[in-house]
Design the sequence.
């Protein structure tokens, strides 16, 4: 930082008064930046201290059953209503005698992801059952 | 004058946006970075965000993002860079379908905030590397202040360069894989190689912007004051990044040190490059 004062001196002596003028547009963008920093900070601190950080809580919803050649595709959504992210979540899908497994890479806290399971027999919507198997901590 | 300044600001904004994309494309397209956005400990991300403001301000000061010399002007520059970084990160991540409307707030805010920090650095660097003092119009060249960093300034630039490179590597699984594969001897050798590369980069291989050995100082003085200190700072930055990204949680001391040395390798190259480039 040794050369800083010299730079300042020479700058001041060689510049017009308008030099430090900051255009309105620059203030606006900087203001947006400041708001973004403050809001993100506030949000992160809120998340750290005020949001309950309970264990993952997994729930399912069947979205649609699409009949296909030689069976059906069951489209569903998995929700994590808890406060912890899970990785490699195993999901067991059952309909009648049939049972299939699917793995979800990442399911963040309070988020959802879609998935699908193929069955050889088109099942009744109310007979489709999902169960979480296990997961890994990220 | 005011109109001219306004026009310059708009060109600067466009350059900053271009730069933030250019510098952060690898990060924007890295899975681990998206995941960190939601599973990183919120307070560690908050700390990183707080530290990024003085970092961007310092970079803006030394690289001549804008021409201001006042504290107010530099702070405005830093916030402009952050805003541009957040904007380009949000836009690119939505374009790549990494974020979308039906994702939770936690996920979206985390992903954008984490990417906005390196994107903001890219925004500042773009202006120094792709315009302003070196390129740009005649008028800009005349207006650009000649800000030679002193000793502390050089150290600051090394920290920024190290951070930028560390940011690119620290989130990846490879840091852990490499550290697990390495023996203590590998780690020791890597320390010496990193220091050697760092010194050679700045003083020996005649890159554009190469520093000359000050005549008044001995080789040892320069080596210890700049290279060794720079390497120590690179290690500190690496350890900080690993801790922030949760890479040190649950690891034993040997693994933490080895990972830090592994990440210190790209970080020290980044630190040396920053001295040449900025």
Sequence:
């Amino acid at each position: 930082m040794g050369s800083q004062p010299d730079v300042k001196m020479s700058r001041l002596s060689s510049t017009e008064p308008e030099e430090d003028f900051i255009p309105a547009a620059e203030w606006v963008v900087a203001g947006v930046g400041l708001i973004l920093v403050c809001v993100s900070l506030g949000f992160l601190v809120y998340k750290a201290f005020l949001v309950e950080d309970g264990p993952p809580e997994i729930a399912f919803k069947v979205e649609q059953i699409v009949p296909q050649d030689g069976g059906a595709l069951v489209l569903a959504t998995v929700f994590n209503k808890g406060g912890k992210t899970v990785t490699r979540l195993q999901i067991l899908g059952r309909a009648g005698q049939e049972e299939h497994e699917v793995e979800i890479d990442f399911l963040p806290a309070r988020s959802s992801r879609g998935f699908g399971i193929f069955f050889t027999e088109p099942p009744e919507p109310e007979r489709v059952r999902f169960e979480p198997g296990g997961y890994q901590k990220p | 004058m005011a109109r001219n300044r306004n026009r310059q600001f708009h060109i600067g904004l466009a350059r900053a946006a271009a730069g933030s994309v250019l510098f952060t494309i690898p990060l924007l397209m890295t899975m681990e970075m998206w995941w960190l956005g939601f599973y990183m400990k919120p307070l560690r991300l908050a700390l990183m965000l707080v530290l990024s403001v003085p970092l961007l301000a310092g970079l803006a000061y030394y690289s001549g993002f804008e021409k201001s010399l006042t504290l107010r002007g530099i702070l405005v520059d830093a916030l402009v860079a952050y805003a541009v970084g957040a904007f380009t990160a949000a836009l690119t991540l939505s374009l790549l379908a990494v974020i979308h409307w039906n994702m939770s707030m936690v996920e979206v805010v985390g992903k954008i905030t984490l990417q906005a920090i390196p994107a903001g650095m890219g925004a500042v660097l773009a202006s120094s590397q792709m315009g302003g003092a070196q390129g740009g119009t005649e008028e800009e060249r005349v207006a650009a202040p000649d800000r030679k960093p002193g000793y502390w300034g050089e150290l600051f630039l090394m920290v920024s360069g190290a951070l930028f490179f560390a940011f690119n590597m620290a989130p990846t699984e490879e840091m852990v894989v490499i550290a697990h594969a390495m023996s203590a001897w590998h780690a020791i050798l890597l320390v010496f190689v990193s220091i050697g590369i760092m010194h050679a980069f700045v003083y020996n291989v005649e890159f554009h912007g190469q520093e000359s050995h000050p005549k008044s100082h001995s080789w040892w003085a320069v080596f210890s004051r700049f290279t060794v200190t720079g390497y120590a700072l690179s290690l500190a930055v690496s350890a900080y990044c690993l801790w922030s990204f949760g890479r040190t949680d649950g690891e034993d001391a040997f693994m933490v040190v080895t990972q830090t040395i592994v990440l210190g390798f790209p970080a020290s190259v980044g630190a040396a490059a920053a001295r040449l480039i900025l």
In short: Residues 132-144 of chain B have pLDDT under 50 and may be disordered. Chain B is about 75% helix and 0% strand. Chain B touches chain A through 55 residues (CB under 8 Å).
